[in-house]
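Q: Is it fine to ask for two folds in a single conversation?
A: Yes, each is treated on its own. Send the first.
Q: Here.
A: Result:
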Amino acid sequence: MSSPNSSQPSITNNTSQSSASSEQTSLSSMFIFDSIRRNDFEQVKLFIQQNPSLLLVCDENNNLPVHIACKCSHEKIALFLLDRISTQSSTQQLIEIIQKENNEKQSPITLANPKLRGMIKASIEISKMKKLLMEKYENKKQLVPTTIN
């Protein structure tokens, strides 16, 4: 999915990690998957705020947190995870994550119920628009002097 020179986020499989910080991430990843299954939005939000790399950690079945949220039809958590991913990734990377297959050849978009699938598609379009508006804002901001003497 990524090339050596790309700026794509890397997806981590928690079974191949080492070192003390990786052990903590591995432990946190177990807890985030459990929190998602229990539909504990506040706990998931806290985990992601403390360690954004958990967005892209995989479980033993190669599921990302968004896979589990979609599979369990936890719409609020799924949309939160996608929003956090979109702030760290390009739109193309977001789409690749949504289409990433687990060991059972299921992607988050295919695991989502029809209502959530529509929400995910809308979320991607909103992400595209946000990025476009931010680019336009940055371009215009450079044209306006910041201080007037």
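Q: Second one now.
A: Result:
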Amino acid sequence: MTATATEGAKPPFVSRSV
């Protein structure tokens, strides 16, 4: 998912967990 790229405020690993 592109959630990692969209979630600039959160670290990539955090976005990946969510």
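Q: Anything structural to flag on that second result?
A: Two points. The CA atoms of residues 3 and 15 lie 6 Å apart. The two ends are 11 Å apart (CA to CA).
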